[in-house]
Amino acid sequence: MVHKVAVIGAGPSGLTSMKACLEEGMLPTCFESSDDIGGLWKFKEVSEPNRASIYRSLTINTSKEMMCFSDFPIPADYPNYMHHSKILKYFRMYAEHFKLLKHIRLQTSVKSVRQRSDFSRTGQWEVVTEDRDGQEERHVFDAVICCSGHYTYPNLPLKDFPGIDTFEGKYFHSWDYKGPEDMYGKRVVVIGIGNSGGDIAVEGSRVAEQVYLSTRRGAWVIRQVSDNGLPVDMKYNTRFVHILFQLLPMRFFNWFGEKKVNAMYDHTMYALKPKHRLFSQIPVINDDLPFKILSGAVIVKPNVKEIQGSTVVFDDGSVVEKVDIIVFATGYNYGFPYLPSSAMYKSGYRVGLYKHVFPPNLEHPTLAVVGFIHAFGAIIAQAEMQARWVACAFRATLCQS
Predict the structure, then answer these.
(1) pLDDT of 1
(2) Would you state the pLDDT for residue 151?
(3) Checking DSSP bridges between strand 153-154 and strand 332-333, what pairing results, if any?
(4) Burial class (CB in 10 A: 0-12, 13-18, 19+), 114
(5) What is the reported pLDDT for 350?
(6) How far apart are the first and last CA of the chain?
(7) What is the mean pLDDT of each run of 10 residues along the chain (401 residues)?
(8) What pLDDT score was predicted for residue 318?
(9) For the chain, which residues make up each domain, given as ranges?
(10) Distance between CA 327 and CA 396 in Å, rounded?
């Protein structure tokens, strides 16, 4: 008997999950709401609701050697840091090589995933899908893998910014940002200093009259190009370094790493020094931001206190007038609206998952989440390892039933 597995999402996590299922003798069916594979890396000129979104110039901040699937190297002639269009081509080559495309149903969204009435005996799920014509279809699967990602629901905390309703210009979340075209000659405030906020501030500063980058806690900013011109992750994300992390106290690495980062540019002088230590949070990777700050094209500001018409007031009392655009690079919320509330529970800002993969409160381990992890390094390699584990666990569980 061939066991059937539903895979939700045809991004990198969904692709590697399908491959892992096939290798374990299971039959995957992948449901992808968009018209193409790639997930986050499928660029759209207009952002689609409930879908991850990227901007036109986006380049990966992880080197190709550190982000590729283990059994399918990225072509040698591709650059170390790839534009999103090349990443999508790579995913398409991967899908074609491992014959995954025939298992994907495009423009098909998952409306609900529910336990069947005999779940306690079979561990099976009923999956309801909807195609582009609005036609619903019901399916029965032995197991389900959720690969819908965590950059789907923009976090726009307007209540934290008093007076935003009086703002006379244009404001939007970084999720809607595609390029700096609307910033020509404008005065722009970017709120948030994550990777997206840093990129948008730098790109916008090339055409805007002035860009202000507002940060509540600061950030450690590292360069993509490290010693001897090597990609920074190839230099430091090594087995030797990982062994050292097991042997030496974290305070040593924070001290050593911060000293090295500050040797490039003093974070206190650049008004970037955060309250947290270097390895407490994922750093911002941006080679251009320090120069833009040094040249005055980007001015770093503390958190926004309030907004008064076209005037933005910051926590330190400073004021910026005649602001035309506010970009909220304030991160994302997460959710699995198609799952029953009993299948998944939240713990603060985390999802309660065993090893970031399995909901621990189910009678049968036939539901898994792959790629829902935020850690150092590329998600692709992590998702591949998760998918292998899931496929093995599914096979062992289903063969016993």
Answers:
(1) 76
(2) 76
(3) antiparallel
(4) middle
(5) 67
(6) 11
(7) 93 96 96 91 83 87 91 94 95 97 96 93 94 93 92 87 94 94 96 94 97 94 88 87 92 93 92 91 91 96 95 95 96 85 69 87 92 80 95 89 63
(8) 95
(9) 4-152+334-400, 157-328
(10) 48
Residue that has been written with the tokens 């501030």 in this structure: 201
The model carries a pTM of 0.91
Class of the domain covering 157-328: alpha beta
pLDDT for 226 equals 85
CATH number 3.50.50.60 is the correct assignment for the domain at 4-152+334-400? yes
CB 347 within 8 A of CB 354: no
Asked if residue 130 lies in contact with residue 136, where contact means CB atoms within 8 angstroms, the answer is yes
Cα–Cα distance for residue pair 384/317, rounded to 1 Å: 48
What's the chain look like in SS3? CCCEEEEECCCHHHHHHHHHHHHCCCEEEEECCCCCCCHHHCCCCCCCCCCCCCCCCCECCCCHHHHCECCECCCCCCCCCCEHHHHHHHHHHHHHHCCCHHHEECCEEEEEEEECCCHHHHCCEEEEEEECCCCEEEEEECEEEECCCCCCEECCCHHHCCCHHHCCCEEEEHHHCCCCHHHCCCEEEEECCCHHHHHHHHHHHCCCCEEEEECCCCCCEECCECHHHCEHHHHHCCHHHHHHHHHCCHHHHHHHHHHHHHHHCCCCCCCCCCCCCHHHCCCEECCCHHHHHHCCCEEEECCEEEEECCEEEECCCCEECCCCEEEECCCEECCCCCCCCCCCCEECCEECCECCCECCCCCCCCEEECCCCCCCCCHHHHHHHHHHHHHHHHHHHHHHC
